[in-house]
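fyi for ur records
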Amino acid sequence: MKIIDKMKDEKLGSALLYNFTLGYGRPVEMDMYNYVLPFIFHDAFRDNILESRSFRDCVEKTHRENYHYIDEIKAAIKEDEAMTSKSLGLALVNSWLTFELNDEKMCGTAIESEVMMLNEPYRLGEWFCHMTIEEIMEDLVIERERIVVMDTASIGDDMDLSPFDALGDVVVYQTVKPEEVPILIKDASIVVVNKTVLNEAVLSEARKLKLICLFATGYDNIDIDYCSRAGIMVSNVRGYSSASVAMHTFSLLLYLYEKLPYYDHYVKSGRYSRDVSFTHFEKKFNELEGKTWGIVGLGDIGKRVASIAEAFGCHVIYYSTSGNHDDDRYERVDFDDLLEQSDVISIHAPLNKNTFHLFDIEALKKMKKSAYLINVGRGGIIVEEDLAKALVDNEIAGAGLDVLEHEPMEKNNLLLGIRNSMRLIITPHIAWASVESRKRCVEEVILNIESYIEGNSRNRVV
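which gave:
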């Protein structure tokens, strides 16, 4: 049954109240009738009636779809009293309902008739038969999730966060200090973060917390062991930044590989305008075609990079940091072979016990002196002091980094001493941060929270 606004009159109302009375199964007190039409006339609520186990279940389902609807129904209870009175009067005239005193209260009883059977009001009658008006109103009280969204500065002020408002009572913080976090999340049921550290000391005070969502794929800032013990669900976002990170991987590599800093300066310094030749290639560079591209971490991003490298004509090999990943499309090699064979190595792995400081001075010395190292995975995978030494000693040709072990970068980081932009480029963790990628990230977090509210899990880590 689909009721449109122009049909919501006393004639339809009388048929609805008749079916409600049938479902009620006993005389209906007059006051109860005032609570029928507001629910049946509300399209979202009515559409959920036959799919729900109980009145409360229907209330919760509809609330997840439209959190404004409870206020709409409460307003309609008062506004529709006249409609209810006219509908009851018409039902009496049509001999569908009869009214008489029952325990000194006026009640309605259904009379056998040929009125069309309408399932939704009948089911509502079955529910209300076991409830008082007070219990009906109590079931309309939905405790909204208290959602604390932190680190929003990390996703940009151009992102629309208004969809969070439909999911609960939301408090947003652009940035937070570590010492503030325990107080800010103390009463939260859902917390959204990017890089803010949530360890046991912080989480142990958040006794209402049920879900942590990340504006990221990596979750090394979350105490997963504690969350597992405490029954706190953790969800990340996956695949949202693959295109953006793959693009940045090649931006870093090509900036170094074609010596673009030198040629940009050559032109802008005025030297090209004073040259006698149409071309200038003092700094020699090579093609990627025919070179070997080594990948550490052949996940979604690693596979995207591999396919682009193949398009450049590269032979792709990869190293599985877990030892358990096989992919028939590409050649799997051990770590030493990757280091020795690769002309370019790009890192797309998470930070864990297998990858922490994987690229130390010994590993860097095994690389070709003409090789380039690109890290868009996690900063802690490279020993930065060793990389600085390897660059100074010409152990490798160059490095492009978008991630560092400590972010923001520490002032005493030895890599700051390498000023030659043809040997080293560092970007401030922006590989993931295209507009499209950040938009997908926010949308994925919204979907993760919606899934949790609906009693499911999505992108669950623990």
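Residues 145-240+438-453 form a domain with the Rossmann fold fold (CATH 3.40.50.720). thats all i got for now
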